[in-house]
Amino acid sequence: MKAAALLLAVTIVAARQASAAAGDALNKAAWQPMCEMSEDLDALPSNAAAKLNEIVTAAEEMAATGKRLQLYACAAQSAEDRSKAAILAPYFHSKGAAILTKLKTSDGLKLVESAAKPVYAKGRLDELLNLFQQSKTTNHGCLNDGTPANTVTKSGDVIDGVTCKLKLSAIQATFKATTTITATGFNKQPIATNQGSTQQSNAGKNCKMLKLSGVGLGGEALSSGGTTEVEYGAALFKADRTGDQLTGTDMTKLTTTAKTTAPIWADAATASYNLGQINPAEYKNASASAEQDEELQTVTSYVTKEGAPAAEKAKAQEIQAHFDNPVADKIATFIGKMEAMTIPKGTIGLSTNTPLGKIDEASQLSALITRCTLKINKERAELTNNIKETSGQKDPKAAADVCNKITDATGWNNKPYCSYTATETDETKKCQFNETKASKSGVPVTQTQTAGTESTTEKCKGKKNDECKSPDCKWAGEASKDSSIFINKKLAIFSAGFVSVCFKSLEL
């Protein structure tokens, strides 16, 4: 009988202790993981901003490289270098545009979600913890310090030595590694998934917020007609109304079996994981087989082929022919050469001679491109004019008009087809066209054709070798040809040489 009575007494005491634990303060082993999850969620907006910054920077670098190459295609001394730059410039512009397109249509939305959805879950969790930490009196409370007898509250950003700010930090574009977030949820389980009160104090430290069966959360017991259970922290866990027993959501399976149990946390977990999958390094141009890059194939076709259709692509061999193998390495070396080109001091406000690769400002690069384009256009116009004047490819009237406009004696003498007439009283006619001087200077002058007059080509046609004489005709191979043909060939050579000099002496 004594043994039976003793066993009954022990059972009653155990039951009372178990009963007392329900509705009591949470053990530190339960609330500390909540704080750790809150801190990790707090880092996500800044992590998203850091990745966004990296991606936008990659797009800016692509665009800047494209502009530098565009300038180099205008200013490089070597025709081969100008050709390479002309191919790569639209390629890098396209790569930069593709980054922004992907950001707008895909990863940008993921970055926003990775900040918004986890932060919403954090807000729900923080509010719960904040209420718990405030609910402390001399004899009661909702958070204990690891020993059943002591309840704790928040001091600054810490609860009993555990960082738990319970607020959202200022967003900065700096990345902070998280420790609780996984591919399927979190590696923390604050409240056990089996219903019970094992993670609560049994020392009589009541937490009215967790008390549902008596005079607790609602001021009176939740009875029939009311809810059968209460959710806490966006369904992080719940308590039943009859025994105050707690049941936690499986935080390790939020994207699978627990997805419908706690949808707010499931969304937060999915968004958090998606953030981790966004890799800014993938946006950078690091292709080991550039000749297989479809965009590079397309722009190569656009630049090097006349009338290339939109769908036409250059072959890998064509790209290799332009850049040699290994293509990716050769392109990198070429870009390094391009970036080393010096932009003179004073240009676009530069205080020192500056390597092109050090100029990042879009407006400065655009200005350099414009300056180069204007200079080339100006030199082209001057070249065309000089060729016309040097060749004398104009009729006597046009040549005379040129002479009549010259008022400087040096200018008169320098022209191979002008003469100074000292006796002329009209100052505008002192410098006149002199066909004899032009002929002696070796400058051909196109004769004005009139009806019934043979052209030089007609004069030369059919003449024998001994009849084919200057100035109108010249023997070439087996036929008599118009000598102006040979003059034009010389002019073409002269023109090419002049252009080469222009590029070599180019000053932006």
Can you offer a commentary on this structure?
This protein is mostly helical and 508 residues long. The chain has three domains: 22-277, Alpha-Beta Complex (Variant Surface Glycoprotein, Chain A domain 1), CATH 3.90.150.10; 290-360, no CATH class; 394-445. The chain contains 13 helices and twelve strands. The protein has a three-stranded antiparallel sheet. A hairpin with a 2-residue loop joins β11 and β12. It is elongated, with a radius of gyration of 43 Å.
What is this entry, summarized?
The protein has 508 residues and is mainly alpha-helical. The protein contains 13 helices and 12 strands.
Topology:
Blueprint: H1 2-21, H2 28-75, H3 79-134, E1 154-155, E2 158-159, E3 162-163, E4 229-232, E5 237-240, E6 246-248, H4 263-277, H5 294-304, H6 316-323, H7 327-339, E7 342-343, E8 354-355, H8 362-391, H9 396-404, H10 409-414, E9 418-420, E10 431-433, H11 435-440, H12 456-460, E11 473-476, E12 479-482, H13 483-504
Antiparallel strand pairs: 1-2, 2-3, 4-5, 5-6, 7-8, 9-10, 11-12
Helix pairs in contact: 2-3, 2-8, 3-4, 3-5, 8-13
Function: VSG forms a coat on the surface of the parasite. The trypanosome evades the immune response of the host by expressing a series of antigenically distinct VSGs from an estimated 1000 VSG genes.
Biased composition (Basic and acidic residues): 456-466
Region (Disordered): 442-466
